[in-house]
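Task card 7
Instruction: Convert sequence to C-alpha cells.
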Amino acid sequence: MTTTASTINEISLIVVPVSDQDRSIEFYEKLGFEKRTDIPFGGGYRWVEVYAPRGTTGIALAPPPPGTPAGNVQTGITLTTDDIDAAHAELTELGVDLDAEVSRMGDPVPPMFWFRDPDSNSLLIVQSS
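Output:
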C-alpha cells in the first residue's frame, strides 16, 4: 500500500448556505447546538459557526455565493444519536420538518431519518452503534 504525505489534518467546518442567518441560528440552537462564532466581516457579511454538544466539526451558516439561491441542498451532513426514536420524537415535538418515520433497513445500515432546516437543506440523523 502506498501512502501519501498530507498536510490536511481534519474536517473542521461544513458550510451550509442559508438565506437568513438569524433564523438558522435559532433553528440549530433549538436542536441543542451551540453558537461559537458570530463575527462580522467585509461587505456587511457575518461568519457564523454552530456546533453539536459533542464533537469538534462545526456547521458554518453562510449566505450563498452571489447569484446562487440558498436552500434545497443535500448537505451530506450526518449527525449521530444514542437513541434514534427519542431524537425523532424530540424533533417532531419541536416542529422540525422531518421524515414521518425512522428508516430501519437492517444490518449493517443503522436506523436513520432525514430532517430539513428552514431553507430545506437536508441533514441525516443515524443511531450510533
